């Protein structure tokens, strides 16, 4: 038997190479990074096995390409995994360290880890030293600067929603929080309130003072024809959205394109307080309870910021008062503006509160277990 010559072997290798390439090309699993080198595996429905194996067009997902990120997040499965508990996604939007991290640690440490997820959008230009730790360690998503009077704060919230959707299919409710927010109930109380609801909680207010100025902040008629003045709404920056509405937000391009324009009148430019309530009012008003469950006191506000509670005010009486206050209900798509009768029937409690000074952490920790987390 003749031994093959080197030339024959080389020719055989060339003939086999294309087949080897076809067999080995696969569609890679799209991943979202948390900014720490850890991969957060998303919940994209995989294609059929044969298609996945031989596909030569993998879905790219550049981490800092928002358009690709939002498109991928809008395609995740809407349904929760069978038999999996509902989870709450806590979305922290911050441009500074989290002064109340020790309080949140106590809050989360008292509950099973399979009932929640934490995500942080942190300004990448800020030197976070020491870095986030404990329950916040490795939870920072790829972030961009978020500046007041610009669309970037709303962009950051959309980015948080997208990463939370991609990360865990069990995320049922998505709660946006700031660095100055604290819980005013136990996790168990909060969990039951949110997961028993089939609706989002987002303030949707109509005919507010200054509505026209906010609507026209990007220039006269710049919102038309997609967003007419009569469809424009105002609400709190902080909300709790269902999975359905989280997908609605990340999948929206038409309405977002209007709010993503730069403002020509900066001091009436609050996209983070207008885009989300306007979108849900226009697309699915009956899918929301038109109120925020994050308490805020606008009495004595300064420069567009609500009242800040200082260290000397912290005590059982303050927590009790915040709990007893009633949310303001707006437009739920049924009667224009929530009637007193409708408001009374709802009866949802505040679950969080802002705005607290960083020095408040110590007195809050002292009353955490006996007051804050005791329902």
TrEMBL record:
Entry membrane topology: Single-pass type II membrane protein
Principal place of residence: membrane
An annotated Gene Ontology molecular function: glycosyltransferase activity
One cellular component term from this protein's GO annotations in UniProt: membrane
Signal peptide residues on this chain, from the entry's feature table: 1-22
PANTHER family given in the database record: CORE-2/I-BRANCHING BETA-1,6-N-ACETYLGLUCOSAMINYLTRANSFERASE FAMILY PROTEIN-RELATED (PTHR31042), CORE-2_I-BRANCHING BETA-1,6-N-ACETYLGLUCOSAMINYLTRANSFERASE FAMILY PROTEIN (PTHR31042:SF60)
Protein name from the UniProt record: Glycosyl transferase CAP10 domain-containing protein
Organism of derivation: Gossypium raimondii (Peruvian cotton)
Lineage, highest ranks first: Eukaryota, Viridiplantae, Streptophyta, Embryophyta, Tracheophyta
């Amino acid at each position: 038997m003749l031994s093959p010559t080197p030339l024959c072997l080389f020719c055989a290798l060339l003939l086999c190479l294309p087949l080897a390439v076809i067999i080995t090309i696969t569609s890679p699993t799209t991943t979202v990074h948390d900014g720490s080198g850890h991969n957060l595996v998303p919940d994209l429905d995989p294609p059929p096995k044969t298609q996945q194996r031989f596909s030569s067009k993998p879905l790219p997902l550049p981490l800092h390409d928002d358009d690709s990120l939002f498109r991928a997040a809008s395609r995740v499965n809407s349904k929760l995994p069978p038999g999996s508990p509902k989870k709450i996604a806590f979305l922290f939007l911050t441009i500074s360290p989290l002064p109340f991290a020790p309080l949140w640690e106590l809050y989360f440490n008292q509950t099973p880890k399979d009932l929640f997820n934490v995500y942080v959008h942190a300004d990448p230009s800020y030197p976070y030293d020491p870095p986030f730790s404990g329950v916040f360690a490795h939870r920072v998503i790829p972030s961009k600067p978020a500046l007041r009077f610009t669309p970037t704060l709303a962009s950051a919230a959309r980015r948080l929603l997208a990463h939370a959707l991609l990360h865990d299919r069990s995320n049922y409710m998505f709660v946006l929080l700031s660095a100055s927010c604290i819980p005013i109930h136990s996790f168990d109380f909060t969990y039951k309130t949110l997961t028993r609801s089939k609706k989002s909680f987002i303030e949707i207010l109509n005919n507010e003072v200054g509505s026209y100025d906010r609507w026209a902040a990007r220039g006269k008629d710049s919102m038309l024809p997609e967003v007419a003045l009569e469809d424009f709404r105002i609400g709190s920056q902080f909300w709790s959205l269902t999975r359905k509405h989280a997908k609605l937000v990340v999948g929206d391009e038409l309405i977002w394109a209007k709010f993503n324009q730069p403002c020509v009148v900066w001091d009436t430019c609050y996209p983070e307080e207008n885009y989300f309530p306007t979108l849900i009012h226009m697309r699915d008003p009956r899918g929301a309870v038109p109120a925020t469950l994050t308490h805020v006191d606008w009495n004595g506000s300064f420069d567009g910021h609500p009242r800040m509670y200082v260290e000397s005010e912290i005590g059982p009486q303050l927590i009790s008062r915040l709990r007893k206050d009633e949310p303001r209900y707006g437009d739920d798509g049924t009667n224009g503006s929530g009637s007193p009768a409708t408001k009374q029937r709802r009866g949802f409690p505040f679950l969080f509160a802002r705005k607290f000074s960083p020095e408040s952490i110590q007195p809050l920790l002292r009353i955490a277990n006996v007051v804050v987390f005791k329902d």
